[in-house]
Amino acid sequence: MASVPDTTYIARRNPLKQLGERIPPAVWTLIALLLFWELMVRWREIPEYILPAPSVIMAEIVSYWHRLWPNALVTMGEILFGFACAVAIAVPLAVSVVYSRFMARAVFPIIVMSQTIPKVAVAPLLLSWFGYGITPKIVIVIMLSFFPIVINTVMGLRATTPEMLHLARSMGANGWQIFWKFRLPKALPFVFGGLKLATALSVIGAIVAEFIGADKGLGYLILIAGANFDIARQFASIILISVMGMSFFGLLTWLERVAIPWRESVELSGKG
Questions:
Q1: Coil, strand or helix: which one is 72?
Q2: Reported pTM
Q3: Which of 66, 125, 196, 260 is deepest in the core (most CB within 10 A)?
Q4: Domain named ABC transmembrane type-1: which ranges (predicted)?
Q5: CA distances from 264 to 152, 161, 238, 256, 267 (A)
Q6: What is the pLDDT of residues 200-221, one digit of tens each?
Q7: What distance in Å separates the CA atoms of residue 88 and residue 162, rounded to the nearest whole number?
Q8: pLDDT under 70 in the chain at which residues?
């Protein structure tokens, strides 16, 4: 009788292999790029005021954390509040565009055409109207993140097939039941796609607003560090902005898995 191999023993023999399989390939790529960056800076003896090594940037983050963190909280507040306002405006507007012929013909084309206006050119006007407080930053975040949410929501709500709607009406479903049980589940993947795209735009909006007029925030720190030729501090602020953006995107991805768990199972089965 053939002996059964001890899989537990085999697994314990390769802890490094198990660890390597658990870490996403993108992390290994990032580590390789940072090592290459560090080696090239030290080998070519590039001055810190041109391109600091990653180790120098990390040291700057640690030593300057007492100023980075409060300003990161300011930028984070602008991003989250502006994003929440954009969702609160865009989703009801998208629903009204789908259900109202007047809104679809009179308002929706204006929304699409408004995207041809460069938001950076409008930002100085917002400063004149709202001052240098948090209001113009919130408005710019809304202007940038609003469009993908409303467009994707409209596309998702219109994705329900006429056959499905006829079936729902033949079963006696009213308008609210058709929306809740047929249109909304079909639209959720589109909605979350727009929300995830809007996360990156909201971060860009907050930083652009702080570039134009602010006395705090990570965008403000980048400007001050640039004026002092402190490139390591600029990189430290940029890294914090990137971490905030990736964390925000990861939060939306987690919410998507919670809200529409069937989508992941469909994708894994190769049907989606």
A1: helix
A2: 0.82
A3: 196
A4: 68-250
A5: 19, 22, 32, 10, 5
A6: 999 999 998 888 888 889 999 9
A7: 28
A8: 1-13, 16, 19-20, 263-272
